[in-house]
Amino acid sequence: xxxxxxxxxxxxxxxxxxxxxxxxxxxxxxxxxxxxxxxxxxxxxxxxxxxxxxxxxxxxxxxxxxxxxxxxxxxxxxxxxxxxxxxxxxxxxxxxxxxxxxxxxxxxxxxxxxxxxxxxxxxxxxxxxxxxxxxxxxxxxxxxxxxxxxxxxxxxxxxxxxxxxxxxxxxxxxxxxxxxxxxxxxxxxxxxxxxxxxxxxxxxxxxxxxxxxxxxxxxxxxxxxxxxxxxxxxxxxxxxxxxxxxxxxxxxxxxxxxxxxxxxxxxxxxxxxxxxxxxxxxxxxxxxxxxxxxxxxxxxxxxxxxxxxxxxxxxxxxxxxxxxxxxxxx
Length: 330
Prior knowledge:
The protein is α/β, with parallel strands linked by helices and about 325 residues long. The chain has helices spanning about 10-15, 20-30, 45, 60-65, 65-70, 85-90, 105-110, 125-130, 145, 160-165, 190-200, 210-220, 240-245, 255-265, 280-285, 310-315, 315-330; strands at about 5, 35-40, 55, 75-80, 95-100, 170-175, 205-210, 230, 250-255, 270, 290-295. Helix content is about 35%, strand content about 15%. It comes from Thermoflexibacter ruber.
């Protein structure tokens, strides 16, 4: 039996876009086992996929290597370069150790070095991840339309009773996730406020999500946004957020983890993106059967060194509203 480890030790959105690798492996090698090494806080994402057999916390395996040794892995794919994990995999003598040739330490720790560079690639992040499967002699070239079926995010925890009571059975339950912890170009809060105010309250039930810190910023900068949207910032664990997104109908956000979660769950996810590479939709758009991207069609480099982005602000609340109204009728 093939026992394959996927190592992706960075953030939520990146981890979501790595799950299709597990789906691709399982579809091609049904009797294989797929393990995942990640940061502890991403565990709920990984464990929601039916294609992952077990999650390992990065910190724990580095402290107790026997945890990894015990599974008898036949291969490890370093989806995100991690020198400590790469050194451990070599020390454990995992037979097939796969890592991009674009990291010097992989030359010392891996025995499969695919020439996959991400910086200037025209491919999507999920497609670049899947390219690494070529070293396992598996199909590695996928169209975006094929990837939506490979997440396997159907192992979802039941929604808490208190949260379930917030869901309106006769309305379109819409999550707005305005912040990104600074990882993306953000649509202004005033745009979200205008969007919410433009939506018919008989049709839409709106919720604002984010961390407690993000919630504090929103309450300071745009308190009126909560006049017609329920404030859930700082109130949801990642597991609860996944369950809540799964219970809702749609989500609007910039390039953030929750956007990718919503798309993977088959929700009507609308992503707001700038055209600047490599933050542009071609690299980071949400992939899902009901996902949609809004982005101005132009070449632009103006905000490369400035988080203020005129291009993403040029997406109007009316455009987002119109996209939502189309989504309702899909």
